[in-house]
Amino acid sequence: MNIVLRELRSNLKSLIIWSGCMATLILIMMMEFEAYYDNPEMAGLLDAMPQALMKAFSIAGPNLTTLIGFVSIASVYFYIMLGIFAVLLGSSIISKEERDKTAEFFLTLPISRTRAISAKLIAAVINCLLLTGVTAAALYSSAAPYNPDQEFLRFFRLLMSALFIIQMIFLSTGMCTAAVIKHYKKSGNYSVYTLLTAYIISVVISMDNKIDFLKYFTPFKYFEAQYIAASGELELKYLIISAVIIIAGFTGTYLIYPKRDLYI
Amino acid sequence: MNIFIYEMKTYQNSIIIWSLSISALMLLFMAIYPTFAEDAALMESILSNFPEEFARAFGMGGNLSLTSVPGYFKFIFIYIQLAISIQSSNYGFHFLSVDERELTADFIMSKPVSRRKLVISKFSAAFSGLIITNTITTAAGLISIELFRNGNSYDAGNILVLMSSTFFFQLFFLSAGMLVSVSVKKIRSVLAYSMGLAFGMYIISALKEALGMKALGYISPFYHFEPGYMIEFGKYNMERASISFAFIIVSIVVSWNLYMKRDIHSL
Q1: Is residue A27 less than 8 Å (CB to CB) from chain B?
Q2: What would the mean pLDDT of B175-192 be, rounded to a whole number?
Q3: Which domain holds residue A128?
Q4: Where is the signal peptide, in residue numbers (chain B) (predicted)?
Q5: Domain assignment of residue A52, yes or no
Q6: Which of B257, B4, B253 is nearest to B118 (CA)?
Q7: What's the rounded Cα separation, in Å, for the pair A23 and A141?
Q8: Which residues of A touch B35 (CB under 8 A)?
Q9: Is residue A116 domain-resident?
């Protein structure tokens, strides 16, 4: 319990900065929505769009005049930002003892390494939950003036759950990397570049549909906002894959970290 | 000179890895070009029956068609810029903060070298690293265009103008990182700062592109050095680029002064 509190406190500043940035970005973004909201000129234009054509090229143009359409454009950037937060948190919460030369102190305390990891894991998950919460609150409160309907609320709930799942994927990746790689600098690099690679893959996939199978390797493609908006659910296949990744990452951390040599 | 050489050695692996990965990325993107151009051409031929607004809604408006080499290249260059910005801000946040973080500050500060010389050597080492990366990736870019252009023509001059802007683009992130690292007490994790800065700027400019946040766009170098304008007109968009130039000069001057007077934290 002490460790959980200690970790929460030590990460508080970074959490506040991230929350502030997310909230500001969302507020500024939603201010922009005023120009689009129920804009008849734009809506007319979109109605006239040849639907079949849009389907054929799988770029179902999101309707920017509705809340769902507007938010779904920005959704991938929410995924990235919160993903970065989670992956950095995951790798640093494990490796910072070695970085700050506190490992000798920390690991001679009369608790097992497994318990230390559990405490850190709890603190990290609470951090991710809080950041998702702030994002959700900012998005909800700035969407409220535009009369969000039932459909939007449903979409909004799913999007926020997807956001949290993606954070968990990257948190487990970050923690597992930090447990496997001995040097703290390298482990941070590897986990961040994993995220960067995942993002680049997701970009490349959207350009060439022959390499569609690669989408299993990039969490940014698991819960696309447009799919959520159209179907009203998260795809089961990807929920399972996410669960597998998350469990594998955390299990890996629990198995490897207690046995490994420390970098001192 | 010794410091410069030592620093260059520490950057060696990082320079090699970044140059290779950015070049590989360039090659990968250009390899997709032939298929992409076919799809886009079909799309454009259908869209040409509709008013201009339709094309723009699909991101295909403007004077450059996505099927042309420059039109496609401007589209992919944003991701190259993203990678470059991460590397540059990594170096920027790293080079003045590393000694205090790794407790080597006492050692280097007690050497018979002035702080001036120390900063200049470290800065030039980091910047040379970036220039090397830039040169290699520019060459890789031109080669991959030549390999996959599929017989389409392009203006190499405009591409070179675009590539040359990378120089200032890198300097922006390098100096921003330097400014922050001398303004705060201690940088515990370089990556946390550099990812925040690079991705933050990228996301601001991407959201600006998609949703039109005018005012906010002006703080992002991704907007100052937007590939579209440079590749179309073959020159910088001075109105925006000068914001970056001013920022670079100011932050170098300010961080110079701050570092000269800085309390060096040590054990």
Answers
A1: no
A2: 92
A3: 2-34+66-259
A4: none
A5: no
A6: B4
A7: 10
A8: 208, 210
A9: yes
CB A111 within 8 A of CB A84: no
| Inter-chain touch A29–B211, beta carbons under 8 Å | yes
Which residue type sits at A117?
I
**What are B27-49's pLDDT values in tens digits?**
999 998 888 888 777 777 776 66
Domain count, chain A: 1
Long-range contacts of the stretch A126-129 (C-beta < 8 A, 24+): A126/A4, A126/A8, A127/A8, A127/A11, A127/A15, A127/A89, A128/A82, A128/A85, A128/A86, A128/A89, A128/A164, A128/A167, A128/A168, A128/A171, A129/A164
- The CA distance from B214 to B226, in Å, is 14
Contact B188 A96 (CB under 8 A): yes
Window A:157-176, CB contacts with B under 8 Å: none
Which of these ranges, A94-103, A123-132, B55-64, B164-173, has the smallest mean pLDDT? Answer: B55-64
What is the amino acid identity at position B160?
L
Check pLDDT > 50 for residue A57: no
Q: Which two tokens stand for residue B255?
A: 């961080």
| Contact call for residues A84 and B196 (beta carbons, < 8 A) | yes
Nearest Cβ partner for A32 among B50, B54, B213: B213
Q: Which residue in A32, A80, A92 is closest to B211 by CB distance? A: A32
Residue A44 lies in a domain: no
Instruction: Kindly report, residue by residue over B109-144, the tens digit of the pLDDT.
Output: 889 999 999 999 999 999 999 999 999 999 999 999
Q: Which of B46, B58, B195 sits opposite A88 (nearest CB)?
A: B195
Distances (CA, A) of A214 to A225, A234, A255, B23, B132: 18, 19, 29, 21, 32
**pTM of the full predicted structure?**
0.90
Q: Is the dihedral of CA B199, B205, B211, B215 positive or negative?
A: positive
**Which residues, 6+ apart, have CB-to-CB distance to B59 below 8 Å?**
B66
Return the structure tokens found at B191.
């990556």
Q: Report if residue A23 sits inside a domain.
A: yes
Question: Judged by CB atoms within 8 Å, which residues 110-129 of A form the interface with B?
Answer: none
Quick check: A45 and B57 CB within 8 A?
yes
Q: Write the residue in A61, A81, A189 that is nearest to B199 by C-beta.
A: A81
Search chain B and give the residue with CA nearest A208: B36
For B81-92, what is each residue's pLDDT tens digit?
999 999 999 999
Average pLDDT score over residue span A130-145:
94
- For the segment A242-255, what is each residue's pLDDT rounded down to a tens digit? 999 999 999 999 99
pLDDT tens, residue by residue, B140-176:
999 999 998 878 888 888 999 999 999 999 999 999 9
Q: Would you say residue A208 has pLDDT above 90?
A: no
Min mean pLDDT across A35-44, A181-190, B31-40, B48-57 is at B48-57
